[in-house]
Automatic annotation (TrEMBL):
Its cofactor is pyridoxal 5'-phosphate. PROSITE patterns: AA_TRANSFER_CLASS_3 (PS00600). Gene3D superfamilies: Aspartate Aminotransferase, domain 1 (3.90.1150.10), Type I PLP-dependent aspartate aminotransferase-like (Major domain) (3.40.640.10). The keyword Lipid metabolism does not apply. Keywords: Aminotransferase, Pyridoxal phosphate, Transferase. Coiled coil: none annotated. This is Aspartate aminotransferase family protein. CDD domains: OAT_like. It comes from Brevirhabdus pacifica. It comes from the Bacteria. One of its GO terms (molecular function) is pyridoxal phosphate binding. InterPro entries: Aminotrans_3, Aminotrans_3_PPA_site, PyrdxlP-dep_Trfase, PyrdxlP-dep_Trfase_major, PyrdxlP-dep_Trfase_small. Belongs to the class-III pyridoxal-phosphate-dependent aminotransferase family. The keyword Transferase applies.
Length: 416
């Protein structure tokens, strides 16, 4: 590092230019505890955005479990070890409709890749449907389902992206575009292997869709012989408050569920849960092996995270604090706030100007104004005008009060 090079320049020199940081003035974080983060100058930030540190940054029980296991044994997945078995048994109890076996992996992208290959193996078909405003990960297969940046070489013929829920895409419109896409895949000779969806449509801007919204689409998928794949990477582990899984909130019964981000509270552990018949087809077709997936340290992190969720009753907490924060957000009454979205500790607001146009620039400015005031949150949605608030699950009423007070000030700054 030379004397004049900034940390950001050094990052670009060493990691390349395309790993974006948050904020115009990026934060260098050095320490975390609960809902709090500290930067290199000792400044404290309220974290209203981090869904990876699910049970709070550096939760002592998770840290201790990781340290203890790392000091005892860590190895690859070819030996017998009870940690991952205990975990799958415990987590399996939280699934209905026969989902009882897991492929442990290391990232959400990998989990979705495996889920897609499970669907191909189980159905003998190759086609997939997803929404046109989503993100499910970055493997070659999964990045075919992303519209953020079209895949190099263009989309493959076996992919159909349907208009995302929200706006005028009601349940009926969603179902008919799914049915049409399934028909097209059939006619093109691919057939439908599966529909991949995030049950709260997180990356689509989490539109408030009612329970039952996806029923007709799911029926169309089943009629075409495809599987329903739920990406719970963002929605899972109690974040929605009312339920442990987003698919329970939506009221659908998926054939495979992928999970990641919050699963190990920051330790890279992820997985796909499915039925034994689908697992058998997958193993038969792909003979899948993963060196790090579900290793003893990963299993210790995942077991400890699940224990904290249970012992601290964090799902109920997400429901109650989320409802309170949403109520206070509604009470701000600033003219830019055109509507509220979300549930539990995944919520936000839609920002529009008086003429109804998306307040995308104002939302971007608001995120920056919050950062300057020491509160971290972000924005999403096809137009970037949805304020996205998604704190660690230990966020309490006092944290919500501080976030709302700061937001009220910041709104007055960006749109007086
Ligand atoms: N699915 C969803 C819904 C996501 O939001 C993301 C990441 N933002 C992924 C999958 C990919 O997870 P990972 O970055 O761990 O590969």
């Amino acid at each position: 590092m030379n004397q004049t090079e900034t940390l950001l320049q050094r990052r670009e020199r060493l990691l390349g230019p395309s790993v974006p940081t948050f904020y115009r003035d990026p934060v260098e974080l050095v320490h975390g505890e609960g809902v709090w983060l500290w930067d290199a100058d000792g400044r404290r930030y309220l974290d209203c955005y981090n869904n990876v540190a699910h049970v709070g940054h550096c939760h002592p029980r998770v840290v201790a479990a990781i340290a203890k296991q790392a000091g005892t044994l860590n190895t690859h997945s070819r030996y017998l070890h009870r940690g991952i078995l205990d975990y799958v048994e415990r987590l399996g109890a939280r699934f209905g409709h026969g989902l009882s076996q897991m492929v442990p992996v290391c990232t959400g992208s990998e989990a979705n890749d495996v889920a897609m290959r499970m669907a191909q193996a189980a159905t003998g078909r190759t086609g997939f449907i997803a929404t046109d405003a989503t993100y499910h990960g970055n493997t070659a297969l999964v990045s075919q389902l992303s519209t953020r940046r079209p895949p190099v070489g263009g989309y493959a013929g076996n992919i159909r992206l349907v208009p995302a829920p929200g706006g005028d895409v009601d349940a009926e419109a969603f179902a008919s575009s799914v049915a049409r896409a399934a028909q097209e895949l059939e006619e093109a000779g691919h057939g439908l292997a599966g529909l991949m969806l995030c049950p709260i449509f997180a990356n689509e801007g989490f539109p408030d869709v009612p329970p039952g919204y996806a029923d007709a689409a799911v029926a169309a998928v089943r009629k075409a012989g495809g599987l329903v794949l739920c990406d719970e990477v963002q929605a899972g582990f109690g974040r929605v408050g009312s339920h442990f899984w987003g698919h329970e909130l939506l009221g659908i019964a998926p054939d495979a569920v992928s999970m990641g981000k919050p699963m190990g509270n920051g330790h890279p552990v992820a997985g796909v849960m499915t039925r034994p018949d689908i697992m058998a087809a997958f193993r038969g077709a792909f003979g899948y092996f993963n060196t790090f997936g579900g290793n003893p340290v990963s299993a210790a992190a995942a077991n400890a995270t699940l224990s904290v969720i249970e012992d601290e009753d964090l799902v109920t907490k997400a429901r109650d604090v989320g409802a309170y924060a949403r109520e206070r957000l509604a009470a701000i009454g600033h003219p830019l706030i055109a509507g509220l979205r979300g549930r539990g500790l995944f919520f936000g607001a839609e920002l529009r100007h008086a003429d109804g146009s998306a307040a995308s620039d104002a939302t971007a400015d608001l995120v920056e104004a919050m950062r300057r005031r020491g509160v971290l949150l972000n924005r999403i949605g096809p137009e970037g005008n949805i304020l996205k608030i998604r704190p660690p699950m230990v966020f309490d009423h006092g944290h919500a009060d501080l976030m709302i007070a700061t937001l009220t000030e910041a709104l007055d700054e960006v749109a007086p």
